What does this fold into?
Amino acid sequence: MGATQDSPQAAFARFVRRAIDDAKRDRGWTVSELATHTGVGRSTVFRWLAGDWQDYPELAKVRGFCAALGVPVGAAFRALGLPDAEPGSPARRPVVEPPVDADLRMIMARLADPGVPADEKKLIRDTLRQLAHRQIRRAG
It folds into this structure.
C-alpha cells in the first residue's frame, strides 16, 4: 500500500524525510550510517520513506529512530495519527509536561530555528551529548 497525500503513510514519510535530511545536514550521516545509529534497517527506512506499509511501524523502532536523532517521539506519533496512544491501546490522558528551565527552552529554540547555521546546531548537540554521557563524579 503506497502513501496518499493525507494518509498516515504520507505524513510519516514526510516526518522521516525531514529527520533524514537534518541528519545528513547536521551530522553528515548517510542512510547507512543513520540505520546503524538508529537501529532501524536501511530497507525499513526506505519503506518508511515510500509510505510502503499497511500495519503501523514497530513503535520500538520509531522510538529508537527518534532517540538517536534527537527528535521528539511525539512528533512521529502525531505524523502516524497517534497523538496520545499506540495502536491497539486505549487512549491515554494527555501527559502534562513538567516545566522546562529557561536555558533549556533557549537551547531547544536554537536547535529548531532554521536560521541557526548547521555547524552551530552540531556544536550544541555535540556539547549536550558530551554532558549526557560524562561520568558523574561524586564527592565523598
Remarks:
- The helical segments are 8-27, 31-38, 42-50, 59-69, 73-79, 102-112, 118-133.
